[in-house]
User: What shape does this take?
Amino acid sequence: MTKPVVLIVEDEAPLVTMLRYNLEKEGFQVCEASDGEDALIQISERKPDIVLLDWMLPLVSGLEVCRRIRRGPDTRAIPVIMLTARSEEHDRVRGLDSGADDYVVKPFSPSELVARLRAVIRRTQPGAGEEVLHFADVKMDLAAHKVMRAGTGVHLGPTEFRLLRHLMRYPGRVFSREQLLDAVWGHDVFVEARTVDVHIRRLRKALNAVGSGDIVRTVRSAGYAIDRPQ
Ligand code: CA
Assistant: This one.
């Protein structure tokens, strides 16, 4: 598979350096733009596979760049992840309204960002990157049905495997027990909500047996998510 091309649109040079280093390490080809105008030129000329777009940019704002990507007949299908220091729900909604596919709030960890990138690429280009999911030090090879943590094999039952696969497809997103039942067990099966807790417990135990830091986050009265260790 050819390397996916990521365009980083960001005016903070140290952040660009950090992103470039981590993305190249993860097998992406990286190009850069440091303002909104340059970004629009590169997007129309190079047609990157995905754009990491900072909100606060010189010349043309990230929000406006995103709107123009969505208006261009040749560029409207390019996935966009907005990067921003703003965390208010209001701005999040504006970002997604402008056509962004996802939204990452600064500061973020490189592994979280890479996981989001892969998730967005997978959602928008079916088939691309479908075989392996990554999050933090956990790697899932879907074709081979193998899970590794920090290089060591993790032994999971079939339900735990499907549970982890679902959570790892949407890192950071919180799923209720009911949503997990639908996604992992299927709509037609009657299983009690607390069954999810049992399998989450097994999943956690298996993951933590070979690595440190709990990536399965329990969100009180809401559900579960895959998240960087707290
Ligand atoms: Ca900026």
User: Anything to note?
Assistant: Residues 193-210 form the longest helix (18 residues). Residues 5-124 form a domain with the Rossmann fold fold (CATH 3.40.50.2300). The first strand starts at residue 5 and ends at 9.
